[in-house]
Write a structure and sequence with these properties.
mainly alpha, Growth Hormone, Chain: A, 2 domains, 17 helices
Length: 408
């Protein structure tokens, strides 16, 4: 009840544009996660794709999204967020509609690329404007920027929690119904933004597309933040790689994964704002990120410490649950702090470009690191070793954080 009261009080003080953008994140994730969790099974079982091709398609989606975030961010700086968001929503509608009717590999690949590129347009536009508005609000004395960005994170996690429930409900019909429902969500988002999103946002100056990458690549503090954030994302992705392997070892089944994922989402939805409120008043952005990375490293170490006992059964899931809790608590500290730090590191007028670049560079770190992690898990090393090596990644990332943040 305290969390809901605090959240309601925060929302009541937000200006209409920030409310719209935060609700946008909620709607985006509902529509997206109504489809994504069921895509691999549809491709393998319904269409009959080989396992390697399913993995390739899922990788293409990630690449077309994360890898092109920098493009979407640059376009948002140049043309403003309204046309970029509306174009992204239109492409997402077309992509989901196409995917629902695609029954051949080339059609699936085309639809998935369209879905990923749509997110590469609208996500950095929305995220950069939320960060900019949060800074404006902080400078006018209306509250901490990290609290606004924490609320943005909560909205995203709530959407990620509700979306699969909607998809599972519609899956009783067929996968096409799931895709069309996802498209329907984005139709509503498109209509709402066409009506409510301002043509011009005060204080946001448009810049030319060229000329931003050189200063960005020379910005050592920003690149250091990208690498540290990439290490966090690599650790977070172990929810989908190392954790399933451990759950399978402990119980002989993947079924408990759903409960562990639900635990992670519920923790963010219920505890993100209280955690941010307590930490934001006491720690600088750098110290907040460092504390989050340390918690994540501890989560890996908990599993590593328990593995030599070789326990199996339901009780053997306790270390995995501890890992999920510590990883999620670390996420609550790292993600809002990283977004709040970006406006201090970005060049004037290029917040969209830097927001997109953060995702693209950190996504590259995850791509390379995930390949190494997969190899590590398959090498036959003693069970605790991979988890200890994974613990070293976020621990080492603490040293990469910029040493002189512009604000406390």
């Amino acid at each position: 009840m305290t969390t809901l009261t605090a959240r309601g009080a925060t929302e009541s003080r937000l200006p209409p544009l920030l409310r719209l953008l935060i609700l946008t994140q909620l709607a985006f994730n509902i529509g997206f996660f109504a489809v994504l969790p069921f895509l691999a099974e549809h491709l393998g079982d319904t269409i009959g794709m080989a396992g390697w091709l399913v993995g390739f398609v899922l990788g293409l989606r990630t690449f077309s999204q994360q890898g092109l975030f920098v493009v979407g961010g640059a376009l948002a700086d140049r043309y403003g967020i309204r046309p970029v968001v509306l174009a992204g929503c239109a492409l997402r509608i077309a992509g989901f509609g196409w995917l629902g009717y695609a029954d051949q590999a080339w059609a699936v690949i085309g639809a998935v690329l369209l879905i990923g590129f749509a997110a590469a347009l609208f996500s950095p536009a929305v995220e950069s404007e939320v960060a900019r508005q949060a800074v404006v609000r902080e400078e006018s004395g209306d509250g901490s920027r990290t609290r606004v960005l924490a609320l943005f994170t909560v909205a995203g996690q709530a959407g990620a929690f509700v979306g699969p429930l909607l998809g599972a409900l519609l899956l009783s019909a067929d996968f096409r119904a799931v895709c069309l429902a996802g498209a329907g969500v984005f139709v509503l988002v498109l209509a709402g933004h066409a009506r409510l999103l301002p043509q011009r946002i005060p204080g946001r100056e448009r810049v030319r597309v060229r000329g931003g990458l050189g200063p960005l690549l020379r910005n050592r503090r920003f690149l250091a933040l990208c690498c540290a954030y990439g290490a966090y994302l690599l650790a977070y992705n172990q929810l989908y790689l190392a954790l399933p392997a451990e759950v399978e070892r402990a119980t002989g089944s993947q079924a408990p994964l759903a409960w562990l994922f639900a635990l992670s989402s519920l923790l963010v939805v219920t505890a993100q704002l209280p955690v941010t409120g307590q930490v934001g008043a006491r720690l600088s952005l750098r110290r907040s990120m460092a504390a989050g990375l340390a918690l994540i490293a501890t989560g890996f170490a908990v599993v590593a410490a328990a593995l030599p006992a070789g326990r199996t059964g339901t009780a053997a899931l306790l270390p995995a649950a501890g890992f999920v809790v510590l990883l999620t608590l670390g996420q609550m500290l790292v993600a809002p702090a990283a977004r709040a730090w970006l406006p201090d590191l970005a060049a004037d007028g290029r917040l969209g470009l830097y927001t997109g670049a953060l995702s693209s560079v950190s996504g590259l770190v995850v791509l390379l690191g995930s390949a190494a992690t997969g190899t590590l898990l398959d090498t036959g090393l003693p069970a605790p070793v991979p988890w200890l090596l994974l613990a070293a990644v976020p621990a080492a990332a603490i040293a990469l954080l910029p040493r002189d943040p512009a604000r406390a």
